[in-house]
User: Fold this.
Amino acid sequence: MEEIYCFAGNPLDRASERRRDTAWIRSLLDDPAARILPLSDLRPLTRGSVSPVLDWRPAAPWRDLIERGATLVFLGLDDERPYFAVDASGADIAPARDSEPLDARTLAPLLPTGEAAILAEARSLIDWHARHRFCAQCGSPTRVESAGWVRRCPECKASHYPRSDPVTIMLTVRGERGLLGRNKRRPGSRFSCLAGFMEPGETLEECVRREVHEEAGVRVGRVRYLACQPWPFPSSLMMGFLCEGLTEEITVDPEELAEARWFEREEIRAMVARAAAGPDDPTQISVPGPVAIAHQICRRWSYGLDSL
Ligand SMILES: [Zn+2]
Assistant:
């Protein structure tokens, strides 16, 4: 059965075929049931400190900000209402009881599955708009169209679409052992799956083999896809794999990794259990927490739920 990881499982109907209908989008925004999620410097407005939830606001009070040019994105509909996100960076957000902008990465593991997925959609899009104000073809300022899903250049007429950056992330296994690396940029005792961005003209399998060889010097044979996860920092799609290590010797790329090691299956299972139990204890080796697909790949293999 397909498992849903953090940032996946978006419950909204994106109604993508109707985004270009500006009158329809306007009527959705005018609907008193409409809700809008303000993001301030990419941090969503959040309510409640013990079990936080996204602070969905009625749309009407945000009309002024939108008319003054704040980026508005249509996220989708459910049976009750339409949902939007607005870039409220620099706006004077009236402080409400128990409401503040929170860092999405800290917040995501605390949210219900569907809400985290909607947050991923909103954060990636708002971030994309902030970084793509000018046409990549001719340099002119571009305009938002299709309810926030296109930027169009009025000069050369090019249309620019938000992208997802594909990343492969893999656990290389060799019998009863799995290969994990410790990132150079993350000091301490946290090991994780190797990972890297896909390059143009590359298949998933080729990317997995190249990354493992580049980062750890290990040759990879068979490659098996497991699952994927949107990762909105800023806009990646993490695609998880198990793959077969054909060679044993490790040569780390010092630009990427501080260290890479083969761990026994039981060791990885213990690292997974520690990571699931709570925050890192720097004196003990562990893997990332359950929010990350690396955790899930390690969990599924070390508990025997997946094999090559
Ligand atoms: Zn242009």
